[in-house]
Automatic annotation (TrEMBL):
GO MF term list: coenzyme A diphosphatase activity; metal ion binding
Protein source organism: Amblyomma triste (Neotropical tick)
Annotated PANTHER family: MITOCHONDRIAL COENZYME A DIPHOSPHATASE NUDT8, NUDIX HYDROLASE
Cofactor: Mg(2+); Mn(2+)
Lineage: Eukaryota, Metazoa, Ecdysozoa, Arthropoda, Chelicerata
Alphabetical UniProt keywords: Hydrolase, Magnesium, Manganese, Metal-binding
Short name of one Pfam family: NUDIX
Name of this protein: Putative peroxisomal nudix hydrolase
PROSITE patterns: NUDIX
């Protein structure tokens, strides 16, 4: 059951000090990203044990698209799902989807889905690595989160570099790491459940709100990528980690 309040943490001072700005500016260095992905292996994401035999459960992949914008600022690309879709219409998310029978591996699934949704050819995407695959019992599927660079070493131009498939995506937009880590943009949504109340992180990104699975994946990524800058503490009880990230 949804508790119809989006709560804000206590008063925060907006803006970042010089050291924090440097940490954000260098966040997408190869060494920082490799360290981030190594540390994510220590984070429990859902459960690694599906309820069904391996041959029966569904598989999916999503891609966290890293890029630069606003003259070299590290940024992340998001999509707004089409209102024509049967599920999760109008949600902010990362590109991705279900595995197809001819997909080679989870990375291939993420790249294919990104090309289908945004028109970005796989050869123009530089894969950095992936989260450990985890099982999401709520949606009854496994998920692999792939991390990759877009833009070929320059600021991405949404109009020139993307060919958005409007049957799946309404639009794509960018947010800098600074905006995503800004304390005044951080919220949480509280839910009620028979096994105990729990909360999910929420990010305010201008006119759009990032929440649900996308926010949980983003939360884990930022916590391990820029732990000295990103502080998003969820202040309420949570369900067992085997059910949620």
């Amino acid at each position: 059951m949804f508790c119809n309040t989006i709560r804000q943490y206590g008063a925060f001072r907006s803006g970042f000090c010089t050291n924090a700005s440097v940490a954000l500016d260098t966040a997408f260095s190869r060494s920082r990203l490799e360290s981030c992905l190594e540390n994510i292996k220590k984070v429990k994401l859902g459960t690694t044990q599906p309820a069904k035999p391996d041959s029966e459960h569904r598989r999916s992949s999503i891609l966290i698209p890293l890029c630069t914008s606003n003259q070299g600022k590290p940024s992340i690309l998001f999509t707004l799902r089409s209102n024509r879709l049967p599920r999760h219409r109008g949600y902010v998310c990362f590109p991705g989807g279900m595995e197809h029978v001819d997909d080679i591996d989870p990375v291939h699934t993420a790249l294919r889905e990104t090309e289908e949704e945004l028109g970005i050819k796989s050869e123009k995407v530089e894969v950095v690595g992936a989260f450990p695959t985890f099982y999401n019992p709520r949606d009854k599927l496994t998920m692999t989160v792939v991390v990759a660079f877009l833009g070929e070493g320059r600021d991405i131009d949404l109009a020139a570099d993307l060919n958005v498939n409007d049957s799946e995506v309404q639009l794509a937009f960018l947010r800098t790491l600074e905006e995503l880590c800004e304390p005044t943009n951080l919220r949480y949504t509280q839910f009620r459940h028979p096994r105990g109340d729990y909360a999910m992180p929420v990010f305010l990104t201008g006119q759009f709100r990032v929440w649900g699975l996308t926010a949980m994946v983003l939360n884990v990524f930022l916590r391990t990528l820029v732990p000295d800058v990103y502080h998003h503490e969820v202040r309420c009880a949570v369900l067992p980690k085997k059910l949620y990230m």
